[in-house]
Amino acid sequence: MSKENVINSTKMNTDECELVITRTFDAPRELVFKVWTDPEHLKHWWGPKGFTIDVTKFDLRPDGVFHYCMQSTNGHEMWGKFVYREIIAPEKIVFINSFSDEEGNTIRAPFSPIWPLEVLNTLTFSENEGKTTITLRGGPINASETERKRFVEEFESMKQGFGETFDQLDDYLNRV
């Protein structure tokens, strides 16, 4: 297991930017894929450290939705959703991630009026000698230049956030 996230960015073209994070887990690919695709597992590790997750909807299929509420220890709630585009078990998950309201409508991020409304993410899962490497590639879609710039400016923050989430995933994989 590697606790170090590998991160880089590349200009895909003049309209897009991409965040890439890679992490290796000491667990077989089928298990790692399962904990990404089963709400009973997701609620135990997804999200920022110190938050609990309430899964309100989970429909794992193209155009299906994972709608959830994250709650901090002081009661602050933040809603989010994935809209799945592609699922190839146990190799790949493609989804659009956004902030949402309680009803599942896409809304602006509570921390920034210029954060992109939608981020397209592609997760790939590869296995080597019983260890699974996840590569997350993500970038804003249907975004203004200002929103794309904001996304790039937050790479370090996203690296930290995904690092904590992946730490929680690693801990969870060691318990299941």
Number of domains: 1
**E-strand count:** 9
Element string (H = helix, E = strand): EEHHEEEEEEEHH
Distance between the termini: 16 Å
Structural class: alpha+beta
| Mean of pLDDT | 91
Structure description:
By secondary structure, the chain is α+β, with helices and mostly antiparallel strands. The protein has helices at residues 29-36, 39-42, 145-153, 155-175; strands at 6-13, 16-25, 52-58, 65-71, 77-88, 92-100, 106-107, 118-128, 131-141. The longest helix is centred in the C-terminal third of the chain and has 21 residues, at 155-175. It has one domain (6-175): Alpha-D-Glucose-1,6-Bisphosphate, Chain A, domain 4, CATH 3.30.530. It is globular. Helix content is 24%, strand content 44%. Strands 1, 2, 3, 4, 5, 6, 7, 8 and 9 form a 9-stranded antiparallel beta sheet that branches.
Which descriptors would you attach to this protein?
24% helix, 9 strands, alpha+beta, nine-stranded antiparallel β-sheet, 176 residues, Alpha-D-Glucose-1,6-Bisphosphate, Chain A, domain 4, 44% strand, single chain
Please sum up the structure shown.
Belongs to the AHA1 family. Helices cover 24% and strands 44% of the residues. With 176 residues, the protein is α+β, with helices and mostly antiparallel strands.
